[in-house]
Structure to design on (347 residues):
């Protein structure tokens, strides 16, 4: 039997606690999470709605060192030993899980791998903290349902609460730790929408979304955006239910622009867009208005543009994106499933 099998055997006899690694998809928000009501618990200002991405994922193995060999947590992300704030954020999440399990003794060895560039407007923290939550909880022996896992993942990164679920997902703002959780609206099979990501830059962003959330309340436009979200939520749910991109598209564009207006007008101001971002936005509007190409955009905390279309228009969209000088590469995905355990260990 291969290494993975041997390790699961050891896990079973409690000498080492190693999870079979879960794989969690990133997600793209149609209605965004931007701004926190409670920064410690990551309780957001508004509900958000997203599609979990099947082709962009993080796989994470966690091994709790029951034998006490490690003096500190060891974290490896995409083949590199993590240090500084990135490692501290993971350690903080491991501390939470140690606390929930009622056992603070064990250090952990964490190995995580993304199949897409981190910190570039494709939400790596969403899939990363969803996968870490499932891996660490399973390995330490916490048997939790998805709602509880969603609440724990939220503490690592708000959008990770949504990546516990597949398909089309809503994160309810809630009032406290137990009620601020995501739920699935529709499974992935409900609608084979495509997310075509026009990558303008893969550089790590200057201000992480984690730090950006704290600034939302300093923007004079924030309250107006949150009000607008609450009038749009039911329309967004309906448009997804009816699989009507012509209804959904204008709503997601409006909220993406509103979120970036809040970002740009907060103090200090956050400007995630690059010239290439605008090149794509103008092109998409032109293609839609002049040629009837039904494609709609959204943008997270980065310069890259996510374009949503029906599968029938993806080829044409890809062809056109290749003509834009600022598009470095294109990544595509449809909706994916729940965060799930796979059989292949990372170490
Ligand atoms: O989960 P965080 O802290 O990385 O925040 C995500 C913020 C956005 O991606 C901009 C919006 C969203 O809802 O995913």
């Amino acid at each position: 039997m291969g290494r993975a099998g041997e390790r699961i055997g050891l896990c079973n006899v409690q000498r080492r606690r190693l999870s079979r690694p879960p794989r969690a998809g990133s997600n793209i928000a149609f209605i965004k999470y931007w701004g926190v009501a409670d920064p410690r618990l990551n309780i957001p200002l508004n509900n958000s709605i997203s599609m979990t991405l099947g082709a962009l994922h993080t796989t994470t193995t966690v091994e709790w060192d029951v034998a006490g060999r490690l003096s500190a947590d060891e974290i490896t992300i995409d083949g590199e030993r993590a240090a500084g704030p990135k490692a501290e954020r993971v350690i903080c999440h491991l501390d939470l899980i140690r606390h929930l399990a009622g056992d603070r003794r064990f250090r952990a060895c964490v190995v995580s791998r993304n199949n897409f560039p981190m910190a570039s407007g494709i939400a790596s923290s969403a899939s990363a903290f969803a996968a870490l939550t499932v891996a660490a909880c399973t390995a330490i022996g916490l048997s939790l349902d998805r709602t509880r896992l969603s609440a724990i993942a939220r503490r690592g990164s708000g959008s990770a609460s949504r990546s516990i679920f597949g398909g089309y997902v809503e994160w309810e703002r809630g009032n406290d730790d137990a009620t601020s959780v995501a739920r699935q609206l529709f499974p992935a099979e409900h609608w084979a929408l495509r997310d075509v990501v026009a990558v303008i830059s893969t550089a790590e962003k200057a201000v992480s979304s984690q730090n950006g959330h704290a600034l939302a309340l300093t923007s004079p436009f924030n309250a107006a955006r949150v009000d607008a979200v609450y009038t749009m939520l039911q329309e967004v749910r309906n448009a997804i239910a009816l699989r009507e991109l012509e209804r959904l598209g204008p709503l997601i564009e409006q909220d993406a622009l509103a979120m970036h207006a809040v970002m740009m007008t907060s103090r200090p101001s956050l400007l995630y867009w690059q010239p290439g971002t605008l090149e794509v936005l103008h092109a998409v509007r032109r293609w839609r208005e002049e040629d009837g190409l039904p494609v709609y955009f959204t943008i997270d905390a980065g310069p890259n543009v996510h374009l949503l279309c029906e599968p029938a228009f993806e080829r044409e969209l890809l062809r056109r994106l290749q003509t834009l000088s600022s598009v470095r590469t294109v990544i595509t995905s449809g909706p994916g499933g729940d965060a799930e355990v796979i059989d292949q260990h990372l170490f």
Q: What stands out?
A: The longest helix spans residues 222-241. The pocket of PMV is lined by residues 29, 32-34, 48, 123, 125-126, 157-159, 209-210, 213, 300-301 (CB under 6 Å).
